[in-house]
Amino acid sequence: MATASFSNLPTCAFSPSYHNRHQSFVINNITRQIPNPHLINFSLTCTSNTPNKNKTCRPTVIFASGGGKGGGGSWGSGGGGGGGDDDAGFHNCTEAIFALAKAGRTLGDLPKDLAGAIEAGRVPAAIVKRYLELEKSPVFRWLLNFGGFRERLLSDDLFLAKVAMECGVGVFTKTAAELERRRENFSKELDFVFADVVMAIIADFMLVWLPAPTISLRPPLAMSTGPIAKFFFNCPDNAFQLAFAGTSYSLLQRIGAIVRNGAKLFAVGTSASLVGVGITNALINARKALDTSFAGEAEDVPIISTSVAYGVYMAVSSNLRYQVLAGVIEQRILEPLLHENKIILAAICFAFRTGNTFLGSLMWVDYARWVGIQKIRE
Hints:
Blueprint: E1 2-5, E2 12-13, E3 24-27, E4 30-33, E5 40-46, E6 56-63, E7 69-70, E8 73-74, H1 83-102, H2 112-119, H3 125-134, H4 138-143, H5 147-155, H6 159-182, H7 190-209, H8 227-233, H9 251-290, H10 303-338, H11 342-371
Antiparallel strand pairs: 1-6, 2-6, 3-4, 5-6, 7-8
Helix pairs in contact: 1-3, 6-7, 6-11, 7-9, 9-10, 10-11
């Protein structure tokens, strides 16, 4: 058994409590229900030797430090693992509940996945406070209705700004990189340039979305789920992202995050390329029909080979670059240093993402020529 005394709480009015029953507490005249009640018991320090039903007492929370399970599953990320995860999960839950109580909110006011994650001890109070803060904006309040945005915004409140950065500068940086690499051949290779830019713009959003660190709000998988699906389900979205208290990732799970995102980005890159190259070829053929002199200057871009090559490039180069950018440079280095100055943090993130986009465009031109899907025109 472990004991935690919350001396910083205001004096609360308690009824006599019994182990393994739901306990409720009152803060500022608002009643809250404690989840996973069989993990919790209260001992009361009262001014009288025999506390009565309505006696004012100071609570000390007593809980089992290992292996217990409640309605939301075991505390921590494992299935009834060590006491350390259980303690962290219990701390997350109680602190999150208290943060809601102070704001005059209940678990019923939250999305079901977020409420379930709080009950399971996977969400610390800081995330609850961020959710309540984001809700004040009409735009963020609308985006928080969608699970994918909710997981990303709660992990990084600058996520939407980073999407805008990536997509906003994509056209300019990629065009500049194409000009830098192709130089005097730029005008002769406009069909290649157009295909590259279209492919990149389609893929930019997914390059921010997939490697972005997240708060895992998904409910546990069914017991009948296969081992491979369970393994990838438990992998983080970013291989380098921080693990909150009550959650941990093994080295194998972090490697799995790179493999899973690589597979997704291969599909995204291949699909984006099919769209981009298809549009380019349609424009080339339309110009050939209108201008017979143009027929000898341009040729159709190979669709299948270009699409597969771009998918491989996204799965390897883009995947690793964006995983490191989001998980190491931004979350582990910049955010701890500049978390109190969001404007400077956003500006530096903008600079890093602009440089990364430009570097990626340079690498793509070299890679495309190396594998033979684009050739230098004389």
